[in-house]
Design a protein that fits this description.
The protein has six helices and eight strands. The model has no long low-confidence stretch (mean pLDDT 91). Strand 4 and strand 5 form a beta hairpin. The chain is 50% helix and 22% strand. By secondary structure, it is an alpha+beta fold. Strands 3, 4, 5, 6, 7 and 8 form a six-stranded antiparallel beta sheet that branches. A two-stranded antiparallel sheet has the order 1-2. Helix 3 packs parallel to helix 5.
Amino acid sequence: MKIVQSMETFLEEISGKNSARTVEKYHMVLDLFKDYLLGYGEISYNEAKNGELFLTADTEELEFGHAGSFLDWFLIRKVMGPQWIMKAAPNIIKRYFKWLDAEGLLSEGVIEEVLETAKDAARDLPRVEKASSLIYALCSRNAESFESGRYKYDDENNFIEGYGEVTGIIEDNIYLDYEGEKIGPIQVTGAIVKYLKKGDTMNLVVRKKGKKWYPVESGNIYPA
């Protein structure tokens, strides 16, 4: 069965068992999943005369990595949507793949990995989304303090930017490894560290004042 047809059939089946609001959420998440497959899934598609791309792949082309990359990378990096998506998407993807498996439409061994991936994403996506919003607010305050002169620093080049992996968390300070360059302590807040774990990767610009570093610009956070 074609992936697009499978999504339509799946949505028809759940429509009689769920509220219109719930079905709408399923529609939105599966549309995003389809967008991911077209742009990044390395899966069969064609191009219409107007330039629009459309999936032609069968469900047997789906791999567990598609679910993982969609949940752990695409939603975080590419989707600017309501917060409920981060909470709902793992369960929706899990339910869709379980339906595919029950219908005999998946390749062997795919479902086990998808279930594990969805379980991890259900735990981690809301966590990193909350951390991202808190760090963004902190960066705005810190950047204003540096620009206004309330935070003085001796060297304008005393900063680092890029992706850093969380290697340590002590009270309200974190330590990041920027591709071998270890930076810290980085002053954040107790509310932020509550949502971070060792191994998380953060896109963060930090500046140094005295012996501490302060985040001044933030991007995405990817779960460990």
